UniProtKB/TrEMBL annotation:
It comes from Penicillium steckii. GO terms for biological process: fatty acid biosynthetic process. SUPFAM superfamilies: NAD(P)-binding Rossmann-fold domains. Belongs to the short-chain dehydrogenases/reductases (SDR) family. Coiled coil: none annotated. Pfam families: adh_short_C2. Gene3D superfamilies: NAD(P)-binding Rossmann-like Domain. One of its GO terms (molecular function) is oxidoreductase activity, acting on the CH-OH group of donors, NAD or NADP as acceptor. It comes from the Eukaryota. The keyword Ribonucleoprotein does not apply. This is 3-oxoacyl-[acyl-carrier-protein] reductase.
Length: 333
């Protein structure tokens, strides 16, 4: 097989919130109003923006990265960029094996085109992409498999998220619970799994302390949302979960330093604004124009620009509790 399927977790059956909760892989929903959105994959077209062509510098050479929500949107863009930066292995986590396999195929094609254009040799991209099928909102049910995968992970990206469109008085408790479990509890439990695996690995490696160089730190990158800091209508649970992500980021940065001896774990966050995804194709030209007028840069962001921020956070060893707004200046308005 071109892609190694490292684990497949038994998924729960259809739930009562399936009718209104949709997968999202982008950072910020409309601050004016939140509407229902279709699920989308990395193969769907995204409006092109004038992003400067990226030049790889092999900044993540030798690193293993696990990315939740990696089959589309921001998660997919980060996976693509990490491969360009020579990450040794990318583990994509998602609920749908079909969508993960489609994303992996796209990543293989994309990486092949880049290396062909730049004329550089590369290892087999297929061997560097692995898939982990599991629902981040139900991590507790497959924690053992997750911790096993975390054993060699250097960089964890929490990019998975869900939302639904409803004002709070009309929101069903099950929908609210699902959003909080996936967006906040899921990120917390994946972070826990990384830290626990890092502690075990550190204990095992102490026997060879005299022969080892100073290791890279472990890095957690949480994808939050502008809704965490800027109010909106129709997404109270989503906004609360993304605000919680910022609290998680800060607390892990401090707690890891205070409680973990001889182990460095950095915790950082990205706060995206309006990002070019298939979601915005539902906006009318008038809505698009009005929204862009509210952004100081007068355009939406590109997922690759969010991925640039992720590369910086992953490779900069002094970036800890670093929160990057990627919103074109909208947070200042």
């Amino acid at each position: 097989m071109a892609v190694s399927l490292v684990a497949q977790v038994r998924m729960p059956g259809p739930s009562l919130f399936a009718r209104s909760v949709n997968d999202i892989r982008f950072g910020c929903l409309s601050l004016a109003r939140i509407r229902h959105h279709r699920c989308f994959s990395s193969t769907q077209s995204v409006q092109k923006s004038s992003v400067t062509r990226f030049q790889s510098a092999d900044r993540l050479s030798g690193r293993t990265c696990l990315i939740t929500g990696g089959s589309s949107g921001i998660g997919y863009a980060i996976a693509e960029r990490f491969l360009q930066e020579s990450a040794s292995s990318i583990i994509l986590v998602g609920r749908s094996q079909k969508r993960l396999e489609a994303a992996a195929a796209d990543l293989r094609s994309s990486a092949g085109e880049i290396h062909s254009t730049e004329g550089t040799a590369s290892s087999n991209v297929s061997d560097r992409i692995r898939l982990l099928v599991g629902d981040v909102g139900e991590v507790a049910s497959w924690m053992r498999e997750l911790e096993q995968e975390m054993a060699k992970v250097d960089i964890l990206v929490n990019a998975a998220g869900v939302s639904f469109s409803s004002i709070l008085p009309r929101s069903e408790p099950a929908d609210i619970s699902h959003v909080l479990r996936t967006n906040l509890e899921g990120a917390m439990l994946t972070s826990r799994a990384l830290i626990r695996a890092a502690i075990r690995s550190r204990v095992r490696s102490r026997k060879n302390e005299d022969t080892e160089a100073i290791p890279f730190s472990k890095c957690i990158i949480n994808v939050s949302s502008l809704l965490a800091v800027k109010g909106g209508t129709g997404a109270v649970p989503y906004a609360a979960s993304k605000a919680g992500i910022l609290g998680l980021t800060r607390s892990v940065a401090v707690e890891a330093s205070a409680s973990l001896k001889d182990l460095i774990i950095r915790s950082n966050a990205i706060v995206p604004g309006y990002i070019e995804t298939p979601m915005i194709s539902d906006f009318t030209p008038g809505e698009m124009s009005r929204l862009k007028d509210t952004i100081p840069l007068h355009r939406f962001g590109d997922p690759r620009e969010v991925a640039d921020a992720a590369v910086f956070l992953a490779q900069n060893e002094y970036a800890n509790n670093c929160v990057l707004n990627i919103d074109g200046g909208l947070s200042a308005v």
